[in-house]
Amino acid sequence: MFGEPAAEELDPDLLLWWLHRQIDSADLPGPRFTVYVPFSDHPNRYWIVVEDDVSLCLADPGFEVDVTVRANRAALYQTYLGQRSLAEARRDGSVTVDGSQTAVRAFFEAFRQSPVAAIVREEGRTGR
User: How far apart are alpha carbons 113 and 23 in whole angstroms?
Assistant: First the structure.
């Protein structure tokens, strides 16, 4: 049910839209926190800017970047959908998160997986 997505299902625009909507801005230092997301397997680049609201930018907004998240689309999908945690993906190198120690820690606290992540994890454990 929640197997590996096909390459044509790996839409980076949709993934970043979902991801930016799940960021818990209360956990980020501000007045502004900027996350840069370049994919290793797609030319699009994204910036998530957290101020009063969380915005997704398709062009460089010109703000200092606090955290850079690098991954291929499949790895970030797996992390967001709950097949693995962000910490697991970082440990195995499929996702890198760079920035100051404080900024990276804040990003890890603010990162929220999909609302269906618990279901995806359970499906993975039971093998349904």
Answer: 9
Task: Report d(CA 59, CA 39) in Å as an integer.
Answer: 14
CA distance 39 to 46: 9
Find where tokens 């945690």 sit.
85
- pLDDT per residue over 48-89, tens digit each? 999 989 999 999 999 999 999 999 999 998 898 888 889 999
**Structural domains of the chain sorted by starting position, each given as residue range(s) with its CATH number in brackets:** 7-126 (3.30.1050.10)
Report the C-alpha dihedral over residues 51, 108, 78, 40, rounded to 10 degrees.
Answer: 70
The answer to whether the CB of 128 falls within 8 A of the CB of 3 is no
Q: Please state the length of the chain.
A: 128
